[in-house]
Amino acid sequence: MIVQACLNGARPVDFHPRLPLTAQAMALDGAACVDAGAAELHIHPRGPDGRESLSAVDATIPAVRRACPGTLVGVSTGAWIESDEAQTRNLIAAWSELPDYASVNLSEFDAPAIIDLLHRRGVGVEAGLASVADAERLITLPDHRRVFRVLIEIEEQDLDVARQVADGIAAVLDRAGMRRPILLHGFDATVWPFVGLARQRRWSTRVGLEDGKHLGDGTTARDNAALVAAAVAMFHATAAD
Fold first, then answer.
1. Where are the domains of the chain?
2. Does residue 221 come out as left (phi exceeding 0), alpha (psi in the -120 to 50 range) or beta?
3. Which of 12, 138, 239, 241 is most buried (CB neighbours < 10 A)?
């Protein structure tokens, strides 16, 4: 069970005053999150214009690693980043600085090809599952047991519905004998309920401005490190119980 920090995601510049958008900002923010208890970092590198960019991985990964030595660092491969399947594959193939892992959304058409490319490059795969259909697709892939981790990531804002989806995904994985680490996270309204559910099931979780800016009491967090500290405290409280 770990708490991963997701620093920025696809959030717009004005989402939060402490949203890290440059390589140096992500490095400093990542170090603060590690100090707060984050075991890993998930980042969306940005280009000089502040937009998400797969080509920015080569500049961002070394900066984050210098600030956070020994910490695993992952990135997104979301199809929206480049909005071009061939360009996405070409940029991943051209990375000179490899992340430890990269998330791949099984809802995206080109997911199998991206997974294969990442494995060939020696990059771990976080298989992102947002629906039961995503889980069913994953277990049909010939190398599905090679994935580094399964992300159960639900954006549905109705908590009851979101939990039903998460349960359905877990059931598909269980029936398939998919024994890979699971990280469960919510989005906005479901962030903290899902942190609680993850600790209950002894899964990992993640928090950060990518997923939401509010603490469990509804107040706006000062920064990513405050979100991480709150999640780590919840996990430690469970261990004490």
1. 3-240
2. beta
3. 138
